[in-house]
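Researcher: Let's run the pair from yesterday's discussion. Sequence first, then tokens, for each.
Model: Starting with the first of the pair.
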Amino acid sequence: MPFLTTSDGCDLFFTDWGDPDGRPVVFAHAWALSGDMWHQQIPDLVEAGLRCVVYDRRGHGRSDRPGHGYDIDTLAADLAALVDHLDLTDAVMVGHSMGASEVVRYVTNSGADRVAGLVLCAPTLPGLLRTEDNPDGIDMAVFEETWRGMRDDIGAWMDRFTHGQFNAEYFGAAKPMSHDFGAWTRRQIVETPLIAALASQRSVLEANFRPELRNLDLPTLIIHGDTDTSAPLERTGRPTAALIPGSRLVVIEGVGHGLYASAAARCNRELLDFIAACPPKHVGGHREPEVARQ
């Protein structure tokens, strides 16, 4: 299995699917999940001639579980190590939820020379915490209560958070997904080391991405479900789109935070259309994707 070793000695698991000469698409997964969450995107994009690179964040999935490095800057540096290791150019970066924060911080810290565009799927951006410049945010006390619940019993916490209807709330009432798919998603969350889950969530929560979003100078697509309770559209997706110059917001009705699965066909069409329209910065070197299937 392919791994790369970061500068601080953490081994990151990654997979590299599709045509090595196709345009690279790099996927950053959600909080407490793994790169496997993207398995409904990979077949369609590979069939369109794209190269899909998927990795597990440190402390998640098959990557190492070090006792440090869960701050957003280190997580973005891990992504940079992957991009450099594979020598990717003209990449489109796709981040879901917390993964959207990582791809934005990657551009902030490492620059956009290797990146042609961003897709932010159900982002937790620009910031959920109440601060002076985010007076409509959520009080820290609410998150601290959430973290106490996770420490007590993360399975019980998920039931309380979703009123016992994890599939319907996480994926959305339009298509709540199967029992087995929901159980697989829950299992990934439960199996993520709690210390890594808590530390990484706190790091993203305490970061202020507003200045970074205003300074983004890349084609950017935001995809969000209008019944998302984990990252409500009016707190996250819509203000994110308003902050990024020239970005485009696509709202999918009736789906929740897990729209990558419950609205996979629509998400994949949007991804393929966006990638096809994303101008390369470097001449030659990659096969462009086929036109998105309708």
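Model: Moving on to the second of the pair.
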Amino acid sequence: KEGLFTKHGVNVEFIPVASAPERDQLIAAGQADGMVNETISAMLFNKEQVQVQVARYALRPTLESGHFFILASAQSGITEVAGLKGVEIAVSQGTVIEYVTERLLQAEGFSADEIKTIAVPKIPDRMALLASGEVKAAVLPDPLGALAVQQGAVVVLDDSQHPEYGSSVISFRKEVIDANPD
């Protein structure tokens, strides 16, 4: 919108994806050069050899603004953190979403057996299940968390008080960085 990519001679095409696994498949297949992801996924890509490199933070939570939100369905009656004990929370397993969920709840005093999650990898599916009340709680990143709140979801907890747990980064395939170091 501000013309920054053009100003710096960078051609950018955004490719929307419904889930982290779908995003990772595009990168692994060489069908995308870069991605907005999290450091955990970069580490998983680089398990055997360096395939992607983190270029910079994309978004980090601050005290004024969270990045990841644990939301309750409007139908659930849950309005505070204690109401999440033993409740299945929809997450994308093996991603920063699951990690942030566990860490935030542990920081609120939850024991491991009080934290329950259910795998719903695609964000649109998670949003729909939350909106319909089919799941009592789900974790969404901003700006989709804000959209869910506009649709009636209740923010129970976010990472603004614990910014060390959640952030997103911009990563590129190593071969793209090697070919275009500037």
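Researcher: Give me one sentence on the second I can quote.
Model: Residues 96-107 form the longest helix (12 residues).
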